[in-house]
Amino acid sequence: MPEGVEVKIEGMDELIKKLDKLGKMSTVHAGMKAAANVLKGLMTVYPDETAANFPDGPGSSWYQRGKGSLYWRIRDNARVSYGKKSEVLSSKWTSKYSESKTEATIGTNVSYSPFVQGPKGTQSKAMAKIGWQGVDTVANKELPRIQEMLFAAVKRAIGAA
């Protein structure tokens, strides 16, 4: 699973304590779940396919999304699988929420995810070059949107929305 990326809002811990005392946390919980689901949804988006995703004639090999590595066998003109099958990364992103910790987590258990969508330092430069976004890149890019979603949830909780 790619290393975690934390989105922390300064002062949120104190605000959560106050909202909890007022019994207003259900709205905040819903906002945090929604924010996590937005990030999860963005992680399931694949970049455009490249030449590496298509056969190049007999004797060639390629990676077909959803299937894995394939090889075009010359002797009988058959397309056969070899190596590891696809774990279908886009369908394996999950989100979970802990109300007791007021924390949302997105992640995947796909074995190759750190190399495809992991944070800088684990993501393959080749994957970044062809358009795969690392989990840290997506989280940082979406930070203003996530913060706005959380602020909106807090405003609804206190009746200011």
Describe the secondary structure blueprint for this structure.
Blueprint: H1 12-21, H2 25-43, E1 61-64, E2 68-73, E3 78-85, E4 94-98, E5 103-107, H3 113-117, H4 125-129, H5 135-158
Antiparallel strand pairs: 1-2, 2-3, 4-5
Helix pairs in contact: 2-5
Task: Provide a quick synopsis of the model.
By secondary structure, the protein is an alpha+beta fold. The protein folds into two domains: 1-44 and 93-161; 49-89, no CATH class. It is built from five helices and five strands; from the N terminus they run ααβββββααα.
State mean pLDDT (0 to 100 scale): 88
Overall body shape: elongated
Q: Please tell me how large the radius of gyration is.
A: 21 Å
Structural class: alpha+beta
Helix content: 25-40%
Strand content: 15-25%
Q: What is the makeup of the main sheet?
A: 3 strands, antiparallel
Output the helix-strand order.
HHEEEEEHHH
Number of strands: 5
Question: How many domains make up the coordinates?
Answer: 2
Number of helices in the DSSP assignment: 5
Note the gap between the termini.
37 Å
- Low-pLDDT segments: none
Largest sheet, order of strands side by side?
1-2-3
Describe the 3D structure.
The chain has helices at 12-21, 25-43, 113-117, 125-129, 135-158, and strands at 61-64, 68-73, 78-85, 94-98, 103-107. It has 161 residues and is α+β, with helices and mostly antiparallel strands. The chain is elongated and about 75 Å long. It folds into two domains: 1-44 and 93-161; 49-89, no CATH class.
Name the features.
161 residues, alpha+beta, 2 domains, 3-stranded antiparallel beta sheet, two-stranded antiparallel sheet, 5 helices, 5 strands, elongated
